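User: As part of a screening pipeline, I want to sanity-check one entry by hand. Below is the sequence and the SMILES for zinc ion. Please return the complex as structure tokens so I can compare it with the automated output.
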Amino acid sequence: MSAQLVAALDIGGTKIAGALVDGDGGILVRARRPTPAREDGETVMGAVEAVLAELMAGPLWSGVTALGIGSAGPVDASTGTVSPVNVPGWRGFPLVERARAVTGGLPVRLVGDGVAMTAAEHWRGAAQGYDNALCLVVSTGVGGGLVLNGRLHPGPTGNAGHIGHISVELDGDPCPCGSRGCVERIASGPNIARRALENGWRPAPGGDPGAEAVAAAARAGDPVAVASFERAARALAAGIAATATLVEVEIAVVGGGVAGAGEVLFAPLRRSLREYAALSFVHGLTVAPARAGTDAGLLGAAAAALPVARDDAPASLPG
Ligand SMILES: [Zn+2]
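Assistant: Here is the complex for your manual check:
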């Protein structure tokens, strides 16, 4: 086991998870609270403080050298603030300052959840060993992150690689972000389901009308369900191809609930990539399912924190 030990927080709209993580990605201590997402900002912070207090109560805490936070976005790492879409009580909330105060002045690194997932996949998942990678989270929204030249590339505010809001349809539907024709507007789970419903697909009576049910129908051969996944795959492929053409990523790792559709998504995604990633230098682009699993948020927050850990840090660090 590496001597380095960091604390990690994974903050989402439904849960706040915390852990102590060693330098090999081992999770030694865990804590967790539901996110009081509809409450005021101080109540949400209270849940974060409860998770931190639980981590700090154990004997390992004295060895912790930094805190990494992966949060639902948008985040602004340059100001240390977060404004998660699904936590309305937090708008420009000074999460870094508050977390630093609770932890007695530990170095804190904040990244968006897409960047955290990317850090996890590069450290312990499907992007391991790749110096240039794009990772995508396709679920309720579409997020992502970049590894460039062997290092995590969060960008100045911690949002770089946010592929969900690249426009792939110039005259497409307006997107809640203010643009139109975004990847997310076509490829997110709710949009896959919406399009299938609009075109006549129906869930089984009493069944859930979500993307998972559309995936099951596609697997059973329902042409409307298949078409909705194919359209999502084309949007993802166009975004991935654009990214690969710009910065020469060698692998695109796709995770999130919608990636659970498996070949229903990945087969048309590979096919569409051959169409959109046309130049010779992007022909070798690999697409792979995410591998870091349910702890990706925590591992990614930890990986993001390791380079700022207060220590005689080893030369080789993830991220
Ligand atoms: Zn958008």
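Points to compare against the pipeline: The chain has nine helices and twelve strands. The pocket of zinc ion is lined by residues 165, 175, 177, 179, 182, 184 (CB under 6 Å).
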